[in-house]
Design goal:
Rossmann fold; homodimer; 8 helices; 21% strand
Chain lengths: 220, 220
Protein backbone atom coordinates (compact mmCIF):
# COMPACT_ATOMS: atom_id res chain seq x y z
CA UNK A 1 0.00 0.00 0.00
CA UNK A 2 1.32 3.39 -1.01
CA UNK A 3 0.17 6.38 0.98
CA UNK A 4 -0.89 9.18 -1.36
CA UNK A 5 -1.11 12.80 -0.25
CA UNK A 6 -3.35 15.14 -2.25
CA UNK A 7 -2.02 18.69 -2.34
CA UNK A 8 -4.27 21.56 -3.26
CA UNK A 9 -4.36 23.04 -6.72
CA UNK A 10 -3.61 26.72 -7.06
CA UNK A 11 -3.48 27.14 -10.82
CA UNK A 12 -6.51 28.83 -12.37
CA UNK A 13 -7.18 29.82 -15.96
CA UNK A 14 -9.10 32.86 -17.01
CA UNK A 15 -8.25 33.01 -20.65
CA UNK A 16 -10.99 30.83 -22.17
CA UNK A 17 -12.87 33.82 -23.59
CA UNK A 18 -9.72 35.32 -25.15
CA UNK A 19 -8.96 31.96 -26.71
CA UNK A 20 -12.43 31.56 -28.20
CA UNK A 21 -12.31 35.02 -29.75
CA UNK A 22 -8.81 34.48 -31.18
CA UNK A 23 -9.98 31.19 -32.70
CA UNK A 24 -12.92 32.95 -34.42
CA UNK A 25 -10.65 35.66 -35.82
CA UNK A 26 -8.18 33.12 -37.18
CA UNK A 27 -11.00 31.14 -38.79
CA UNK A 28 -12.20 34.32 -40.52
CA UNK A 29 -8.66 35.03 -41.79
CA UNK A 30 -8.40 31.47 -43.13
CA UNK A 31 -5.61 30.47 -40.73
CA UNK A 32 -5.70 27.01 -39.19
CA UNK A 33 -3.77 27.09 -35.89
CA UNK A 34 -2.35 23.96 -34.28
CA UNK A 35 -0.96 23.92 -30.76
CA UNK A 36 1.90 21.41 -30.61
CA UNK A 37 2.85 20.28 -27.12
CA UNK A 38 5.31 17.81 -25.60
CA UNK A 39 8.02 17.26 -23.01
CA UNK A 40 11.42 18.87 -23.63
CA UNK A 41 13.47 16.93 -26.14
CA UNK A 42 10.68 14.86 -27.63
CA UNK A 43 11.44 16.19 -31.08
CA UNK A 44 8.84 18.90 -31.83
CA UNK A 45 11.20 20.87 -34.07
CA UNK A 46 12.42 17.80 -35.97
CA UNK A 47 8.81 16.71 -36.52
CA UNK A 48 7.83 20.17 -37.78
CA UNK A 49 10.87 20.41 -40.06
CA UNK A 50 10.05 17.10 -41.71
CA UNK A 51 6.36 17.97 -42.01
CA UNK A 52 7.16 21.34 -43.65
CA UNK A 53 9.53 19.69 -46.12
CA UNK A 54 7.06 16.91 -46.98
CA UNK A 55 4.16 19.32 -47.55
CA UNK A 56 6.04 21.93 -49.61
CA UNK A 57 3.84 22.96 -52.54
CA UNK A 58 0.69 21.46 -51.00
CA UNK A 59 0.09 23.90 -48.18
CA UNK A 60 1.81 26.98 -46.74
CA UNK A 61 3.00 26.36 -43.19
CA UNK A 62 4.06 29.01 -40.64
CA UNK A 63 5.59 28.38 -37.24
CA UNK A 64 5.59 30.30 -33.98
CA UNK A 65 8.32 28.88 -31.72
CA UNK A 66 7.74 29.50 -28.03
CA UNK A 67 10.67 29.08 -25.70
CA UNK A 68 11.75 30.42 -22.34
CA UNK A 69 15.12 31.36 -23.86
CA UNK A 70 17.18 30.75 -27.05
CA UNK A 71 16.18 30.90 -30.70
CA UNK A 72 17.69 27.60 -31.89
CA UNK A 73 14.32 26.23 -33.00
CA UNK A 74 13.26 29.24 -35.05
CA UNK A 75 16.65 29.21 -36.76
CA UNK A 76 16.11 25.59 -37.88
CA UNK A 77 12.61 26.28 -39.15
CA UNK A 78 13.70 29.48 -40.86
CA UNK A 79 16.37 27.56 -42.74
CA UNK A 80 13.57 25.60 -44.44
CA UNK A 81 12.13 28.81 -45.85
CA UNK A 82 8.96 28.66 -43.75
CA UNK A 83 7.53 31.78 -42.11
CA UNK A 84 8.63 31.62 -38.48
CA UNK A 85 8.93 33.69 -35.36
CA UNK A 86 10.51 33.06 -31.97
CA UNK A 87 8.55 34.02 -28.87
CA UNK A 88 10.26 34.19 -25.48
CA UNK A 89 8.18 33.71 -22.35
CA UNK A 90 10.87 34.86 -19.87
CA UNK A 91 10.69 31.70 -17.84
CA UNK A 92 6.94 31.21 -18.11
CA UNK A 93 5.98 27.59 -18.50
CA UNK A 94 3.17 27.82 -21.04
CA UNK A 95 1.54 29.98 -23.73
CA UNK A 96 -1.89 31.48 -23.18
CA UNK A 97 -4.27 33.04 -25.71
CA UNK A 98 -3.02 36.60 -25.17
CA UNK A 99 0.60 35.57 -25.73
CA UNK A 100 -0.41 33.61 -28.81
CA UNK A 101 -2.27 36.64 -30.17
CA UNK A 102 0.79 38.90 -29.60
CA UNK A 103 3.09 36.43 -31.33
CA UNK A 104 0.73 36.00 -34.30
CA UNK A 105 0.43 39.78 -34.70
CA UNK A 106 4.22 39.93 -35.18
CA UNK A 107 4.38 36.87 -37.45
CA UNK A 108 1.43 38.18 -39.50
CA UNK A 109 1.38 34.91 -41.44
CA UNK A 110 0.29 34.36 -45.03
CA UNK A 111 0.31 30.65 -44.22
CA UNK A 112 -2.68 28.29 -44.40
CA UNK A 113 -1.57 26.31 -41.37
CA UNK A 114 0.31 27.81 -38.42
CA UNK A 115 1.94 25.67 -35.74
CA UNK A 116 2.43 27.04 -32.28
CA UNK A 117 5.37 25.06 -30.91
CA UNK A 118 4.50 25.41 -27.24
CA UNK A 119 6.96 25.33 -24.31
CA UNK A 120 8.45 21.88 -23.66
CA UNK A 121 6.29 20.82 -20.71
CA UNK A 122 3.66 18.08 -20.25
CA UNK A 123 1.77 19.91 -17.50
CA UNK A 124 1.15 23.66 -17.69
CA UNK A 125 0.44 24.05 -21.45
CA UNK A 126 -2.46 21.59 -21.11
CA UNK A 127 -4.26 24.01 -18.81
CA UNK A 128 -4.35 27.02 -21.13
CA UNK A 129 -6.42 27.27 -24.30
CA UNK A 130 -4.19 29.09 -26.80
CA UNK A 131 -6.96 29.71 -29.33
CA UNK A 132 -5.74 26.89 -31.55
CA UNK A 133 -8.17 24.87 -33.69
CA UNK A 134 -6.49 21.59 -32.77
CA UNK A 135 -4.22 20.40 -29.98
CA UNK A 136 -1.54 17.90 -30.91
CA UNK A 137 1.02 16.30 -28.63
CA UNK A 138 4.18 14.30 -29.06
CA UNK A 139 5.26 11.42 -26.85
CA UNK A 140 8.68 10.16 -27.85
CA UNK A 141 9.47 6.54 -27.30
CA UNK A 142 12.43 7.12 -24.91
CA UNK A 143 10.05 8.88 -22.49
CA UNK A 144 8.28 5.62 -21.67
CA UNK A 145 4.80 4.13 -22.04
CA UNK A 146 3.79 5.18 -18.49
CA UNK A 147 3.41 8.86 -19.41
CA UNK A 148 -0.39 8.72 -19.98
CA UNK A 149 -0.71 7.60 -16.33
CA UNK A 150 1.47 10.42 -15.08
CA UNK A 151 0.31 13.36 -17.22
CA UNK A 152 -3.35 12.54 -17.94
CA UNK A 153 -4.55 16.15 -18.49
CA UNK A 154 -2.26 16.59 -21.48
CA UNK A 155 -3.39 13.34 -23.12
CA UNK A 156 -7.02 14.19 -22.38
CA UNK A 157 -6.85 17.56 -24.05
CA UNK A 158 -5.29 16.56 -27.39
CA UNK A 159 -6.94 15.70 -30.71
CA UNK A 160 -3.92 13.78 -31.95
CA UNK A 161 -0.93 12.06 -30.39
CA UNK A 162 2.28 11.51 -32.33
CA UNK A 163 4.40 8.72 -30.87
CA UNK A 164 7.83 9.63 -32.22
CA UNK A 165 11.38 8.23 -32.47
CA UNK A 166 10.00 4.78 -33.32
CA UNK A 167 13.34 4.09 -35.07
CA UNK A 168 14.95 3.88 -31.60
CA UNK A 169 12.58 1.07 -30.51
CA UNK A 170 15.35 -1.54 -30.02
CA UNK A 171 16.87 0.60 -27.26
CA UNK A 172 13.78 1.18 -25.15
CA UNK A 173 11.16 -0.89 -23.33
CA UNK A 174 8.20 0.94 -24.81
CA UNK A 175 5.10 -1.18 -25.41
CA UNK A 176 3.09 0.58 -28.13
CA UNK A 177 -0.09 -1.46 -27.47
CA UNK A 178 0.06 -0.72 -23.74
CA UNK A 179 0.68 2.98 -24.40
CA UNK A 180 -2.28 3.19 -26.81
CA UNK A 181 -4.55 1.42 -24.33
CA UNK A 182 -3.56 3.83 -21.54
CA UNK A 183 -4.14 6.82 -23.80
CA UNK A 184 -7.55 5.61 -25.00
CA UNK A 185 -8.68 5.00 -21.42
CA UNK A 186 -8.25 8.76 -20.88
CA UNK A 187 -9.24 9.98 -24.33
CA UNK A 188 -11.18 7.47 -26.46
CA UNK A 189 -11.39 9.66 -29.59
CA UNK A 190 -7.76 10.77 -29.88
CA UNK A 191 -5.97 9.92 -33.15
CA UNK A 192 -2.65 8.14 -32.57
CA UNK A 193 0.19 8.20 -35.11
CA UNK A 194 3.38 6.24 -34.38
CA UNK A 195 6.17 7.64 -36.57
CA UNK A 196 9.83 8.45 -37.05
CA UNK A 197 10.63 11.91 -38.38
CA UNK A 198 14.18 10.61 -38.93
CA UNK A 199 13.34 7.70 -41.27
CA UNK A 200 9.97 9.04 -42.45
CA UNK A 201 8.06 5.93 -41.32
CA UNK A 202 4.46 6.81 -40.46
CA UNK A 203 4.80 10.48 -41.48
CA UNK A 204 2.23 10.19 -44.28
CA UNK A 205 -0.65 9.17 -41.98
CA UNK A 206 -0.02 12.17 -39.74
CA UNK A 207 0.31 14.55 -42.70
CA UNK A 208 -2.88 13.19 -44.30
CA UNK A 209 -4.74 13.80 -41.04
CA UNK A 210 -3.33 17.34 -40.84
CA UNK A 211 -4.45 18.22 -44.37
CA UNK A 212 -7.84 16.62 -43.77
CA UNK A 213 -8.45 18.60 -40.56
CA UNK A 214 -7.33 21.82 -42.28
CA UNK A 215 -9.77 21.20 -45.16
CA UNK A 216 -12.54 20.38 -42.68
CA UNK A 217 -11.96 23.72 -40.97
CA UNK A 218 -11.78 25.62 -44.30
CA UNK A 219 -15.10 24.20 -45.45
CA UNK A 220 -16.84 24.53 -42.09
CA UNK B 1 17.64 37.17 -38.59
CA UNK B 2 15.01 35.75 -36.27
CA UNK B 3 12.60 38.18 -34.68
CA UNK B 4 12.31 37.49 -30.95
CA UNK B 5 9.37 38.68 -28.87
CA UNK B 6 9.87 39.01 -25.10
CA UNK B 7 6.69 38.26 -23.17
CA UNK B 8 6.31 39.37 -19.60
CA UNK B 9 6.92 37.09 -16.68
CA UNK B 10 4.09 36.57 -14.23
CA UNK B 11 5.51 33.85 -11.98
CA UNK B 12 6.70 35.00 -8.57
CA UNK B 13 8.06 33.00 -5.68
CA UNK B 14 7.42 33.81 -2.06
CA UNK B 15 8.57 30.64 -0.40
CA UNK B 16 12.28 31.31 0.14
CA UNK B 17 11.85 31.84 3.88
CA UNK B 18 9.84 28.61 4.29
CA UNK B 19 12.52 26.74 2.38
CA UNK B 20 15.37 28.09 4.51
CA UNK B 21 13.58 27.14 7.71
CA UNK B 22 12.73 23.63 6.45
CA UNK B 23 16.39 23.16 5.48
CA UNK B 24 17.54 24.13 8.99
CA UNK B 25 15.06 21.72 10.61
CA UNK B 26 16.15 18.84 8.38
CA UNK B 27 19.81 19.55 9.13
CA UNK B 28 19.03 19.38 12.87
CA UNK B 29 17.21 16.06 12.39
CA UNK B 30 20.17 14.66 10.45
CA UNK B 31 18.26 14.34 7.19
CA UNK B 32 20.03 15.24 3.95
CA UNK B 33 17.39 16.24 1.38
CA UNK B 34 18.08 16.16 -2.37
CA UNK B 35 15.72 17.69 -4.90
CA UNK B 36 15.85 15.62 -8.10
CA UNK B 37 14.51 17.35 -11.19
CA UNK B 38 14.22 16.52 -14.88
CA UNK B 39 11.93 16.43 -17.90
CA UNK B 40 9.25 13.71 -18.00
CA UNK B 41 10.68 10.37 -19.00
CA UNK B 42 14.34 11.14 -18.38
CA UNK B 43 14.59 8.22 -15.97
CA UNK B 44 14.44 9.71 -12.46
CA UNK B 45 12.82 6.60 -10.96
CA UNK B 46 15.20 4.19 -12.71
CA UNK B 47 18.17 6.24 -11.51
CA UNK B 48 16.86 6.27 -7.94
CA UNK B 49 16.12 2.55 -7.97
CA UNK B 50 19.66 1.70 -9.07
CA UNK B 51 21.16 4.15 -6.56
CA UNK B 52 19.12 2.67 -3.69
CA UNK B 53 20.15 -0.86 -4.65
CA UNK B 54 23.84 0.05 -5.02
CA UNK B 55 23.97 1.84 -1.67
CA UNK B 56 22.07 -0.73 0.41
CA UNK B 57 23.89 -1.22 3.71
CA UNK B 58 25.93 1.96 3.29
CA UNK B 59 23.24 4.57 3.82
CA UNK B 60 19.47 4.61 4.44
CA UNK B 61 17.62 6.27 1.56
CA UNK B 62 14.02 7.51 1.62
CA UNK B 63 12.06 8.82 -1.36
CA UNK B 64 9.19 11.26 -1.72
CA UNK B 65 7.66 10.84 -5.19
CA UNK B 66 5.82 13.90 -6.44
CA UNK B 67 3.46 13.47 -9.33
CA UNK B 68 0.37 15.20 -10.66
CA UNK B 69 -1.41 11.82 -10.75
CA UNK B 70 -0.62 8.08 -10.46
CA UNK B 71 1.52 6.19 -7.96
CA UNK B 72 3.57 4.08 -10.37
CA UNK B 73 6.88 5.56 -9.19
CA UNK B 74 6.29 5.06 -5.47
CA UNK B 75 5.27 1.46 -6.17
CA UNK B 76 8.62 0.79 -7.91
CA UNK B 77 10.62 2.39 -5.10
CA UNK B 78 8.58 0.63 -2.43
CA UNK B 79 9.36 -2.71 -4.05
CA UNK B 80 13.05 -2.09 -3.25
CA UNK B 81 12.24 -1.87 0.46
CA UNK B 82 13.06 1.84 0.72
CA UNK B 83 10.88 4.22 2.72
CA UNK B 84 8.71 6.01 0.18
CA UNK B 85 5.66 8.17 -0.14
CA UNK B 86 3.66 9.42 -3.11
CA UNK B 87 2.61 13.05 -3.17
CA UNK B 88 -0.01 14.27 -5.64
CA UNK B 89 -0.01 17.92 -6.66
CA UNK B 90 -3.41 17.87 -8.41
CA UNK B 91 -2.03 19.22 -11.65
CA UNK B 92 0.44 21.64 -10.11
CA UNK B 93 3.69 21.79 -12.01
CA UNK B 94 6.23 21.97 -9.20
CA UNK B 95 6.84 21.35 -5.50
CA UNK B 96 7.38 24.25 -3.11
CA UNK B 97 8.76 24.23 0.44
CA UNK B 98 5.33 23.97 2.08
CA UNK B 99 4.36 20.97 -0.02
CA UNK B 100 7.73 19.36 0.68
CA UNK B 101 7.23 19.91 4.41
CA UNK B 102 3.73 18.33 4.28
CA UNK B 103 5.01 15.32 2.39
CA UNK B 104 7.97 14.83 4.73
CA UNK B 105 5.67 15.03 7.78
CA UNK B 106 3.74 12.04 6.37
CA UNK B 107 6.84 10.12 5.33
CA UNK B 108 8.50 10.82 8.73
CA UNK B 109 11.68 9.23 7.45
CA UNK B 110 14.33 7.43 9.48
CA UNK B 111 16.55 7.73 6.41
CA UNK B 112 19.90 9.52 6.23
CA UNK B 113 19.29 10.75 2.70
CA UNK B 114 15.86 11.63 1.33
CA UNK B 115 15.24 12.24 -2.36
CA UNK B 116 12.40 14.45 -3.46
CA UNK B 117 11.57 13.22 -6.95
CA UNK B 118 10.09 16.46 -8.23
CA UNK B 119 7.45 16.81 -10.98
CA UNK B 120 8.78 15.99 -14.48
CA UNK B 121 9.31 19.51 -15.77
CA UNK B 122 12.43 21.51 -16.74
CA UNK B 123 10.89 24.90 -16.01
CA UNK B 124 8.68 25.47 -12.96
CA UNK B 125 10.54 23.33 -10.37
CA UNK B 126 13.68 25.44 -10.96
CA UNK B 127 11.87 28.51 -9.62
CA UNK B 128 10.90 27.13 -6.22
CA UNK B 129 13.32 26.36 -3.40
CA UNK B 130 12.00 23.14 -1.83
CA UNK B 131 14.23 23.33 1.24
CA UNK B 132 16.58 20.68 -0.15
CA UNK B 133 20.30 20.73 0.68
CA UNK B 134 21.28 19.99 -2.90
CA UNK B 135 19.57 20.27 -6.29
CA UNK B 136 20.32 17.57 -8.81
CA UNK B 137 19.01 17.28 -12.35
CA UNK B 138 18.90 14.63 -15.02
CA UNK B 139 19.31 15.24 -18.72
CA UNK B 140 18.80 12.04 -20.67
CA UNK B 141 20.66 11.61 -23.90
CA UNK B 142 17.54 11.29 -26.13
CA UNK B 143 16.45 14.80 -25.05
CA UNK B 144 19.34 16.38 -26.96
CA UNK B 145 22.43 18.47 -26.21
CA UNK B 146 20.59 21.76 -26.88
CA UNK B 147 18.64 21.64 -23.60
CA UNK B 148 21.05 23.89 -21.64
CA UNK B 149 20.33 26.61 -24.23
CA UNK B 150 16.58 26.18 -23.88
CA UNK B 151 16.15 25.67 -20.13
CA UNK B 152 19.03 27.68 -18.64
CA UNK B 153 17.39 28.38 -15.24
CA UNK B 154 17.26 24.68 -14.40
CA UNK B 155 20.90 24.08 -15.30
CA UNK B 156 21.92 27.21 -13.41
CA UNK B 157 20.23 26.11 -10.21
CA UNK B 158 21.65 22.60 -9.88
CA UNK B 159 24.68 21.34 -7.96
CA UNK B 160 24.97 18.21 -10.08
CA UNK B 161 23.84 17.10 -13.53
CA UNK B 162 23.40 13.43 -14.37
CA UNK B 163 23.53 12.80 -18.13
CA UNK B 164 21.67 9.50 -18.35
CA UNK B 165 20.84 6.74 -20.86
CA UNK B 166 24.40 6.86 -22.21
CA UNK B 167 23.88 3.24 -23.33
CA UNK B 168 21.55 4.55 -26.07
CA UNK B 169 24.30 6.79 -27.51
CA UNK B 170 24.42 5.02 -30.93
CA UNK B 171 20.80 6.06 -31.59
CA UNK B 172 21.06 9.75 -30.84
CA UNK B 173 23.09 12.74 -32.05
CA UNK B 174 24.12 13.89 -28.60
CA UNK B 175 27.55 15.50 -28.33
CA UNK B 176 28.67 15.10 -24.71
CA UNK B 177 31.50 17.64 -25.03
CA UNK B 178 29.17 20.23 -26.54
CA UNK B 179 26.55 19.59 -23.86
CA UNK B 180 29.12 19.97 -21.06
CA UNK B 181 30.45 23.18 -22.57
CA UNK B 182 26.93 24.65 -22.81
CA UNK B 183 26.18 23.67 -19.21
CA UNK B 184 29.44 25.12 -17.84
CA UNK B 185 28.81 28.41 -19.66
CA UNK B 186 25.69 28.75 -17.48
CA UNK B 187 26.98 27.08 -14.32
CA UNK B 188 30.79 26.77 -14.07
CA UNK B 189 30.82 24.83 -10.76
CA UNK B 190 28.21 22.16 -11.52
CA UNK B 191 29.35 18.51 -11.23
CA UNK B 192 28.53 16.49 -14.34
CA UNK B 193 28.14 12.69 -14.27
CA UNK B 194 27.43 10.84 -17.54
CA UNK B 195 25.97 7.43 -16.68
CA UNK B 196 23.66 4.58 -17.57
CA UNK B 197 21.40 3.30 -14.78
CA UNK B 198 20.68 0.34 -17.06
CA UNK B 199 24.25 -0.94 -17.51
CA UNK B 200 25.68 0.68 -14.35
CA UNK B 201 28.36 2.62 -16.27
CA UNK B 202 29.28 5.80 -14.42
CA UNK B 203 27.00 5.10 -11.44
CA UNK B 204 29.90 4.89 -8.96
CA UNK B 205 31.10 8.46 -9.57
CA UNK B 206 27.63 9.81 -8.91
CA UNK B 207 27.16 7.66 -5.81
CA UNK B 208 30.57 8.66 -4.44
CA UNK B 209 29.64 12.31 -4.86
CA UNK B 210 26.29 11.73 -3.13
CA UNK B 211 27.92 10.07 -0.10
CA UNK B 212 30.60 12.76 0.02
CA UNK B 213 28.04 15.60 0.00
CA UNK B 214 25.99 13.83 2.67
CA UNK B 215 29.07 13.47 4.90
CA UNK B 216 30.00 17.10 4.30
CA UNK B 217 26.54 18.13 5.50
CA UNK B 218 26.65 15.79 8.51
CA UNK B 219 29.98 17.18 9.67
CA UNK B 220 29.16 20.80 8.95
Amino acid sequence: MIKVIELKRTVTDSNDRDAASLRRELTERGIFLLNLMSAPGSGKTTLLSRTITDLTGKVRIGVMEADIASDVDALSINALGAESIQVHTDGMCHMDAGMTRDGLAELNPKADIVFLENIGNLICPAEFDTGAHRNVMILSLPEGDDKPLKYPYMFQKCDALLITKTDAAPYFDFDLAVAEERVRAINPTIRIFPLSAKTGDGMKDWEDWLIQEWEKQKNA
